[in-house]
Specification:
Serine Threonine Protein Phosphatase 5, Tetratricopeptide repeat; 26% helix; globular; five-stranded antiparallel beta sheet; 8 helices; 431 residues; alpha+beta; Neuraminidase
Amino acid sequence: MYSTDMKIKRLALLLVIASLGFTVTPQDNIRLEEAFYEAEYFLMRGDYSDALPYYLGIYAAMPESAGIALRIGICYLGIEGSKNLAIEYLEKASLRLTAKYREGFAKQTEAPYETLFFLGEAYRINFMFEKAKAAYSRYRETLLTTDIENLLFIDQQIASCNNAPAIMAEPVKFTIESIDSRINDIKNNFFPVISADGQTMVYMTALKFYDAIMFTRVEKGRWTPPVNVTPEIESDGGHYVSYISNSGDQMILSKDDDLNSDLWITTYDGARWQPAVKMKKEINTKYWEAHGYITEDGSTLIFSSDRPGGFGGLDLYASRLDANGEWGIPVNLGPEINTPFNEDRPFMINGGKTIFFASQGHYNMGGYDIFRSDLQPNGLWSKPQNIGYPVNTPDDNLFFCPTDNGKAGYMSLTRPGLGAGMEDIYLIRFR
């Protein structure tokens, strides 16, 4: 599977493993060593805001370290509202590249070739498409000819840099409506999922030690105060919501441990949410299953998986409910929807005739974009259409929950200077 975040996690894991051999003998450098260990730990966990101050402190003491400059750039790429700050550090790191990079050794002056990939990402996210193409091309030259997956992915990223200006030249028209202040508080609020009738919402809120599942309904024309149902489903904070039923009494969640991801389900018994349980083996495998969504009539479950037999990375699959009330063998949605790259976060509406999903492939402007496809009379899906800029951007756009027959949708956005927190939930209405 491919994504900037997954590359960051893979590189971070290598850094931490290798850092076990990191030693500093001069007594006056012991604090730098301790800071390095702390930063590496946070980087591996994806806690970029926590890792960053440590790296900045180390870099102030060792400005010649391209490896630390790389890590600072990676941290900034992972922090919303600060991604432009990654460029300076990644540019510095890219001036000192080597094929013999020693992972986890803070004092060396060089950085790995993979720095060029992150530099390309930073340029692309910040609308610097020509520079991004140059960085990607330089990185491509360092790859082995047998590394087909990464070669294809870099080619796709270069193509997205060519597509982006054309997509931006025809912006879509839409309005943005802020959601009730009971939902958008000073914390990050994201992954909004709405029932088909628009009367129930579940979403995620970033609390101090975990991401909480929040539940709210419409009463008297307003959302009720959200309730944190994470304890009820007996989650350790690692479950993420992807579906709420029309009656508001069933949720599908995903949970991953960085090695595997499965779909879980929980139901409301009229008094409280029941402990979440894994869905059966027809849906969950030893591979990666994420983001399940059920159509309004309850007949079809659509989800993403990287199980063998697909077209590459995460593909979208559909399972039908059989006469015994069990989910049948999932069927790949085919090459009209799936590409050699990741397809994820599907929402199927209009009686199973319209699908919205995120993809790194198709006619894309970088990272993940949101696409729409409609089922045709011949039973095949139409060519997926990019829903357009500026709903889609050169950065990753992963989560769009459609409503009003696809004429609108809920998504979380970071809008500097606006909103209650860093990330808030908005209703997008296309015009």
